[in-house]
Amino acid sequence: MKPTSTPTCQPLGGAAVSDQPVDATHPVDEKLPALKMATTGLQHVAAMYAGVVAPPLIVGAAIGLTATDLTFLTGACLFTAGLATFLQTLGIWNIGARLPFVNGVTFAGVAPMTAIVAPTEDKSDALPIIFGAVIVAGLLGFLAAPFFSKAVRFFPPVVTGTVITLIGISLLPVAFGWAQGPNPAADDYGSATNLGLAAGTLLIVLLLRRFTRGFVKQIAVLLGLVAGTLVAIPFGVTDFGPVADADVIGFPTPFHFGAPQFQLAAIISLCVVMVVSMTESTADMLALGEIVDRPADEKTIAAGLRADTLGSAISPLFNGFMCSAFAQNIGLVAMTKIRSRYVVATGGAFLVLMGLCPMAASLIAVVPRPVLGGAGVVLFGSVAASGIQTLVRAGLDKDNNVLIVAVSLAVGIIPITAPEFYHAFPETARIVLDSGISTGCVAAVALNLVFNHLGKGRDAQDVTHPMEAGEEITGAATTRAPATS
Fold first, then answer.
1. Separation of CA 374 from chain center
2. What is the Cα–Cα distance from 179 to 376, expressed in whole angstroms?
3. CA 409 distance to own-chain centroid
4. Positive/negative CA dihedral, 424, 430, 436, 441
5. Diameter of the chain measured on Cα atoms
6. CA dihedral 470, 405, 443, 265 (to 10 degrees)
7. What gap in Å lies between CA 341 and CA 32, rounded to an integer?
């Protein structure tokens, strides 16, 4: 039986246009051969692996978790990252952008979570408090997703760039602390040996990034961690005990660290993080949509944000943290030209399998802190650099935008450069104030509204677009050309 085809068009000359069968499958929806799916999926995991395991390492170290609990927390974050990736790539109902997105633990939540840990007297309550705040922030974000997709114009590059830069700056002190050693009270803390291991790891990563290509270049950080760990063995700072004690197969028991607790200050802090995360994810969706030739419209953005927020709300059930899209994987899609979302879904499957194998997760606990510190300089510095790249596109030749960035960065850096600045404030308020990311984000949004939205009474020539800043900075007074008719 002849298949039904679209009616043939007749050009003016009378010749019929050939009615060739067209493959309607978009590259985003293409299913590749199994081997290629597996190898390219692993490549996505390699590109984001260090980013997924860093937050639980930071928070776990702040709490003082044992090696066994740290291994469990790391595995749980890998497992929940896989679940969140499934939601984003495969989707259900109106949930999921159905784009090649890798989801994992967002860096934006690290500083606020460590700020929650600090004033908690009983550190065993820290994770339940964090989990409770993540659940509430995730559910509120899920409800707000369709409205947020409409309000994205209030988060231009000048805001998102400032926030991303602050994320990297806020995390760099963590890398510097790692480089000195695991215990500030130890005699070898900050020793030449520890700093040498950190510098050596950093050098290895830089050399790999400079002189390798393709897949090896993408996993330079991971290879640097492996090489640094091997180099550290003769110095006696590599402990393989966590691997020996870990089970081959395990499952992230729900609420392993206790039932979630709900504290208002912690919830507010992580709700701010959720706004930041949703802003980053929206920007990532817009960028990825262009790369894969499937532009992200308002409906796609709303669906993608639902996946992010629902994944975040579910994550604490399995002892994971807030999830968000990983921007580094967007670069991988652009480089490889492989646009299939099923490739990324395969990567999500690998993440789930790794989360179900504590022995695999325990390999990270083996890495000495100085080695992590050396790699962290690249990892966290790259986040700050990404923010600077965004700010470059924000129009910093405009005085309004310069003021927004200057003040917001200053506010956000206060907790880093002057940790006791808010010492006179109540502890509940300090959970928010001691997070430079949270305070910097609030400042950037507020200043952007004041300078770029609320000036309706100003000279119309000052602002040509609600999201565009005013006059250009010049060495002398700005002169305007007379209006032309």
1. 20
2. 9
3. 19
4. negative
5. 90
6. 160
7. 10
